[in-house]
Amino acid sequence: MDTVTSPVASISPAALAATVGTRAAPLLVDVRKAEAFAESDYLLPGAIRWDYVSGAPKPAELAQATRAVAYCVKGAEVGINGAGLLASENANINAAYLEGGLRDWQAAGLPLVKKRPDLGVDGERVSRWVTRERPKIDRIACPWLIRRFIDPRAQFFYVPKADVFAIATANNAVAYDIPGAPLEHDEARCSFDAFIKAFEIDSPALNRIANIVRAADTDTLEQSPHAAGLLAISLGYSRMIADDHAMLDAMMPVYDVLYEWAISVENKSVERHNWSPKDIGQ
Asked: Is 281 part of a structural domain of the chain?
């Protein structure tokens, strides 16, 4: 194993967890030894894999990253050396290792993502997903969830409804949000709910967003006071943007800010506005 003699920074599970799912999140790199990685059913949210111990090539994502956190099982030699190697691969990276590794993260009850090889998510390969064209809500919310929590390298295909399963087979991809797909609506619950359940992502903020997405996507706006706003924004963007991938790119920041808001609500730090005309001049 390569070793690093110069000291590297560390980050606590709580500090790292505060960034998970946000645009401020660093690139998370799972550097566990192969046997430890294989024995575990879980990943940190948004993590990519680099088995540097076995001599695997460095992930292409390192070239663009400005912040990265390596994690191993215990936050010891493997993680520390991994962080040092991350920094050595890119002089512009601010690299650190996770204190206590996955062990302390789990002990703190922080969110994890379950590996689902049957759904193309094993932590090592790039996942692929196929759904119907002209996305509005669920078919945008699900890719956002995948990119921010499940697989930041994921690839998406938007195709005519009749072609979804054929394209999935041809591209070794997983169909979603269409009847008969592994992840789809289940009575009152939508595909966004199905993804959260399938990957066992325990996040109160995500559950809050799920309520909004479900109400907007299933025409039950009375179930969430925020759903009408999401629906209006989604339909407005759909009218403006004809290309489905451009629509996804445009809506990613919408879900990013919605998630930031949901975090503030859960932390009881949400900003309130109660301005009235009587406040003029005060």
From this structure: no
Q: Are 216 and 150 members of one domain?
A: yes
Please state the pTM of the whole predicted model: 0.93
pLDDT in tens, the chain (282 residues): 455 444 689 999 999 999 999 999 999 999 999 999 999 999 999 999 999 999 999 899 988 899 999 999 999 999 999 999 998 877 788 999 999 999 999 999 999 999 999 999 999 999 999 999 999 999 999 999 999 999 999 999 999 999 999 999 999 999 999 999 999 999 889 999 999 999 999 999 999 999 999 999 999 999 999 999 999 999 999 999 999 999 999 999 999 999 999 999 998 887 777 776 666 555
102 lies in the same domain as 134: no
Domain shared by 61 and 18, yes or no: yes
- Count of domains forming the chain: 2
If asked whether residues 26 and 148 sit together in one domain, one would say: no
**Do 166 and 209 sit in the same domain of this protein?**
yes
Q: Which two tokens stand for residue 258?
A: 């919605």
Q: Which residues of 213-229 are buried (b: 16+ CB within 10 A; e: fewer)?
A: bbbbbbeebeebebbee
Range of the domain at 24: 9-110
